[in-house]
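// run 5 | inverse folding | seed 20
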């Protein structure tokens, strides 16, 4: 090879290297453009199906009456999980302010490094007392509590038996564990027994169910579940996010309501609904389980500790419920007032006696349009559609709060009647 040819053969790759950043950048832009086109197509399909979920902007504190951006005057809120009205309770708010001043805005760390304060231990102790269990561990959310439990508790020699309509966080948590997974038909004890028989060769068997199913407000048949658990040597887990604080004579939850507090072994629940409405979740159960979760539960080990103001507010909320059952007991009559009046007007309301009162409509677009019309009449409700609920099961989910007055409830019913007649839902 001549000297000139050798030089040219060396220059070509060098030029290629010099050009490569531009070509790589062009490929990167093309990849982003292609991804954006795919995403926009998916978004367009959601809009076309009428299942687009817009976020309304609230310009006031949470409560039975709120201010909504774009709406005039005060709006009655019938869509919050603020079951007991504690999210704006003066003592709960003040406790959060006091904790902020004394303990700061946040811990900047996970619990086992330098993120545990006496405030966290106090709340865990009070929650264990409230549920009458041995111990408690706090999480950033109940989603995290569900994500962190099953992987630690269950191994490949175990089996988990899960209601087919359990909350998405339960489903995701179960996916992380290596246990044998058996799904039983919704609240079907006969099918659960069949699955328990299939799982008899497993080392441990865990039955998993929501205490109250959040979309329909139906209560799990815990009495029958616990009977089957005893018969087939299984443990029972319940998610109590939509029961803690107000179900049962003392507001302890579904297990108290159905008289099986001594037969339910593990409970996950939230601080983000009835217990102050801020954030946070927890697991209560046997002390060895809680100790193991502190050592191995990934959402606990790798998430910052709950902020002191959140913890302070939750402590005061639990203290109020430990001291009196008055708030919890006020829920029943208000719930039944709404359910009875709506049924008499011709609406179909799912569930039975739970404050979650889904107004069943079926059509996603109808649910969305009716909810918008309700807002114009001064009532804040939201249409629920796929994938939050199954296709064909769209509804407007109403949630009654202890903070609602009878007059508030009657105004809501009157607005539903006016809107329902406009859209041909009732005559």
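// decoded
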């Amino acid at each position: 090879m001549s000297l000139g040819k050798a030089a040219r053969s060396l220059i070509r790759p060098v030029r290629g290297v010099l050009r490569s950043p531009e070509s790589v950048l062009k490929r990167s832009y093309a990849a982003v453009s292609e991804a954006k086109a795919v995403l926009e197509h998916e978004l367009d399909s959601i809009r076309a199906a009428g299942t687009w979920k817009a976020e309304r902007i609230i310009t006031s504190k949470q409560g039975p009456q709120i201010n909504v951006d774009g709406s005039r005057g005060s709006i009655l809120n019938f869509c919050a999980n603020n079951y007991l009205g504690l999210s704006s309770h003066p003592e709960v708010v003040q406790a959060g302010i006091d904790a902020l001043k004394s303990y700061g805005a946040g811990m900047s760390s996970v619990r086992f490094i330098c993120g545990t304060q006496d405030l966290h231990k106090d709340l865990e102790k009070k929650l264990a007392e409230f549920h009458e269990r041995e111990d408690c561990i706090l999480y950033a959310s109940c989603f995290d509590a569900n994500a962190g439990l099953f992987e630690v508790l269950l191994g490949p020699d175990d089996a988990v038996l899960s209601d087919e309509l359990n909350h998405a966080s339960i489903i995701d948590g179960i996916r992380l564990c290596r246990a044998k997974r058996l799904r039983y038909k919704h609240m079907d004890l006969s099918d659960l027994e069949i699955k328990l028989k299939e799982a008899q060769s497993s080392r441990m068997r865990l039955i998993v169910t929501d205490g109250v199913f959040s979309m329909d407000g139906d209560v799990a048949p815990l009495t029958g579940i616990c009977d089957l658990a005893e018969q087939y040597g299984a443990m029972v887990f319940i998610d109590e996010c939509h029961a803690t604080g107000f179900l049962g004579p003392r507001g302890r939850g579904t297990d108290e309501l159905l008289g099986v507090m001594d037969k339910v072994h593990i409970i996950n629940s939230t601080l983000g609904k009835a217990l102050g409405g801020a954030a946070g979740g927890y697991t209560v159960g046997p002390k060895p389980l809680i100790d193991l979760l502190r050592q191995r539960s990934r959402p606990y080990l790798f998430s910052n500790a709950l902020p002191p103001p959140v913890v302070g507010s939750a402590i005061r909320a639990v203290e109020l419920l430990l001291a009196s059952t008055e708030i919890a007991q006020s829920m029943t009559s208000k719930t039944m007032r709404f359910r009875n009046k709506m049924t008499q007007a011709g609406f179909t309301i799912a569930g039975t006696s739970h404050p979650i009162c889904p107004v069943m409509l079926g059509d996603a677009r109808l649910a969305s349009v009716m909810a918008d019309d309700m807002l114009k009449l001064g009532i804040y409700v939201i249409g629920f559609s796929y994938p939050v609920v199954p296709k064909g099961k769209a509804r407007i989910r109403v949630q009654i709060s202890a903070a609602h007055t009878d007059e508030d409830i009657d105004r809501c019913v009157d607005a539903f009647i006016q809107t329902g007649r406009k859209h041909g839902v009732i005559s």
